[in-house]
Amino acid sequence: MTKPRILLIDDDKTALDGLVKILAHDGYPVSGALSGYEALNLLSGKTFDIVVTDMKLPGMGGLSLIHELRKKEEPMAIVVITAYSSVKTAVEAIKCGADDYLTKPVNVEELELVLEKLWERQQLIFQNRLLKEKLKDKYKSSELVGSTPQMQGIFKTIEDVAPSAASILILGETGTGKELVANAIHYQSDRSSKPLVALHCAALSEGVLESELFGHEKGAFTGAIQARKGRFEMADGGTLFLDEVGEMSLKVQVKLLRVLEKGEFERVGGEKTLKVDVRLIAATNRNLEREVSEGRFREDLFYRLNVITVHLPPLRERRDDIPLLSNFFVIKYIKKYKKEIRGFDPDAMEALCLYQWPGNVRELENVMERAVVLCKKSMIAIDLLPKNIVPNKEDVSMIKIPLGTSLKEAEKEIIQKTLQMAQGSKKEAAKILGISSRKIEYKVKEWS
Question: Which residues carry this modification: 4-aspartylphosphate (predicted)?
Fold first, then answer.
């Protein structure tokens, strides 16, 4: 194991030189300073892992030096040296930010044991910081892939809201990646070292959901043979993600509202009030405003959840991300299944881009995994795609545009389908649509 870089500070030159010589002989990179000012000057040009300082220094005293050291961004451990009669001062120093203290005369073996202990702790802190950064990087990118303006806006929102403790409501169709957004928010927040607990509320009965959220005491109901923590207790200090929150009964909504307002609840069958500190992220594919107006969702809970809203667009509204996502998933699964695939045949990619994707990104991922598993060549061909994705003659002869599609998206759909029917001939497609072939060329270039 590498040795820590040591800075020794003592106004007694003889004692300082002797200690520097001993530590250097034992393999420590070590420097010495005769005053606090000289030490700060050294620190402005070099980095040290551990500072060992006498408490009595000329000019700037030991306590003042500790205050200055703790202002620095670089993490370093501090050991103070004091006389037997000044142990009270050493305790003061620890309160100010020192990590340990030794009494004079300094026992070198004892000093090296302290240095070893502090260095192990420093490395653990460093490794923990690295792990946090890796987690942040992982969930910053994760499988939230997109270059369209809609997705870039979502990435910016995640970055802006993650540091706060505000409740967040994620809206979007099934398969759009709501849980991925929740993960990204948690792992970019100050709570990233604490638990992220998820609960999918759909298909759970009222009693089961209540027990899952708040826990239960032994004997609370038939089968409750022992007490059990709920998700709120598990997520204490961290984040709780509730998917499909719109499926909750009104009774459970009342208890959830109380936790959001007061941070307290009782387990099912229990009398003791428990307090928790939990950030809530909720998601739904329902229109909660309509649910409120129709009496199926509490208005006060809706406003508590809806502090910040993240709208995830369906995949059909960000078609330009389909090639990017398709390649992302292919790369993911060729690693998993140890395949050698270079990409897509043009007609396969065209079919992927024309499909409506009712199951959104989740459906696309499943299709890509299937294609990789079945692929025996270097390119993914159109015959590896499910039949419902591959356009047939009936599909080509009729263009279906869902209500709510923007004019820009409708234009793109019409031109692409017409090009498909004209077997890629821009001249023929332009003739059918009554526009110039130059306009089609311009549009195709714009989309690519």
Answer: 54
Please spell the DSSP secondary structure of 269-316, one letter per residue. Answer: T--SEEE---EEEEEESS-HHHHHHTTSS-HHHHHHHTTEEEEPPPGG
Measured CA to CA, the distance from residue 271 to residue 391 in angstroms comes to 61
Closest CA to 443 of 122, 421, 419, 180: 419
Shared domain check, 203 and 233 = yes
The CA distances from residue 321 to 8, 146, 147, 318, 357, in Å, are 57, 6, 6, 6, 12
Pair 231, 323 in one domain: no
Between the alpha carbon of residue 61 and those of residues 13, 33, 34, 89, 318, the distances in Å are: 17, 13, 12, 11, 63
When divided into structural domains, the chain yields a total of: 3
CA distance 108 to 52: 12
Query: Each residue of 298-351: pLDDT tens digit?
Result: 999 999 999 999 999 999 999 989 999 999 899 899 999 999 888 899 889 989
Q: Which two tokens stand for residue 44?
A: 């402005």
pTM (two decimals): 0.61
Q: Which domain holds residue 111?
A: 6-129
Residue with tokens 């795609």: 385
Neighbours of 101 (CB within 10 A): 19
The Cα 440–Cα 442 span in angstroms is 5
Domain co-membership, 332 together with 438: yes
Residue 403 token pair: 């209500």
Q: What is the distance between the alpha carbons of residues 182 and 158, in angstroms, rounded to a whole number?
A: 9
